[in-house]
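Last lecture ended with a question: if I hand you only a sequence, what can you say about the shape of the protein? Today we answer it with a concrete record. The protein is Putative membrane protein. Below, first the input exactly as provided, then the predicted structure, then a couple of comments.
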Amino acid sequence: MHRQNDSTKAVFFREKVSLITVVAIAIAFLGVSLLYKGDNGMTLNLLGLGAILIAALSYSVYIVAVNKSRIQFMSGYKLTLYVMASSAVFFLFKAQLTAGLQPLPDTRSVVELVMLALPTTAISCVAMIFAVQYVGSTVTAILGALEPPVAVAVGVIAFNEAVTQNLVFGMLLILVAVIMIILSDYLHKKMRPQKLV
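The predicted structure:
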């Protein structure tokens, strides 16, 4: 998903992509791919994979646009309001064209909807926008690769999902990629040829 971000940045804004960033992206992509667990040996659905790649490209363009345009000077709260309001209008039309809006059956459904809207959507969107403004789109995208390991950890702890070798190895690869990005400045200095006095 986040692999598209740096390529978008390099293609449209002609920015140089360092070797460390490319290696970190490749490692993170491999780690995320290992987290996939099919049922009865099923392979990835090509239609679903295509939808994911389109979503990843759209997400990448959004992050880079926030970082490279005048939007970056807008308040993160205001930008989140505009983005989520636009999304709400889009899904309202989509719902009307398909099954229509359904009434919430009970109080528990209302609470679950609020929990889905606030902690997992609104707060995360605001945090992502501030992250892009403070540390840039590439670092935000790479650190965003921590989402799959966190999701796996929640699944194991909260829903007693099985821990497989692929899950463990995939999470380790993602952590390695994130650490490489965090230490990229230090690694660049170490890799740079030293001038002779």
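Comments.
1. The CA atoms of residues 91 and 97 lie 10 Å apart.
2. The two ends are 45 Å apart (CA to CA).
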